[in-house]
Amino acid sequence: MLVRLLLVLTTLTLVSGCVLRGPEVRVKAPQVEVGAQGGHCPPGQAKKGNC
């Protein structure tokens, strides 16, 4: 019984240093572009060349 308890405590001590990290997710917001006349141009319209 004592040997099993020591084995469990030793195992827990060794495993307690491990850290599991999940994947990181980064989200980048779309940039707001300014048209040639200095007005606001939505990102979708700028990509189409409407500004």
What does this molecule look like?
The protein is mainly alpha-helical and 51 residues long. It has helices at 2-15, 43-48; strands spanning 33-34, 40-41. It has a two-stranded antiparallel sheet with strand order 1-2. The mean pLDDT is 78.
Write a compact overview of the structure shown.
The protein is mainly α and 51 residues long. The protein is 39% helix and 8% strand.
Which key features would you list for this structure?
mainly alpha; 2 strands; 51 residues; 8% strand
**Largest sheet entry:** 2 strands, antiparallel
As laid out across the biggest beta sheet, the strand order is 1-2
Catalogue the unreliable spans.
none
The helix/strand order is HEEH
Percent helix, as a range, is 25-40%
Overall mean pLDDT stands at 78
How many helix segments? 2
End-to-end C-alpha gap: 78 Å
The secondary structure category is: mainly alpha
How much of the sequence lies in strands comes to 5-15%
Radius of gyration: 29 Å
How would the global form be characterised? Answer: rod-shaped
- Number of beta strands: 2
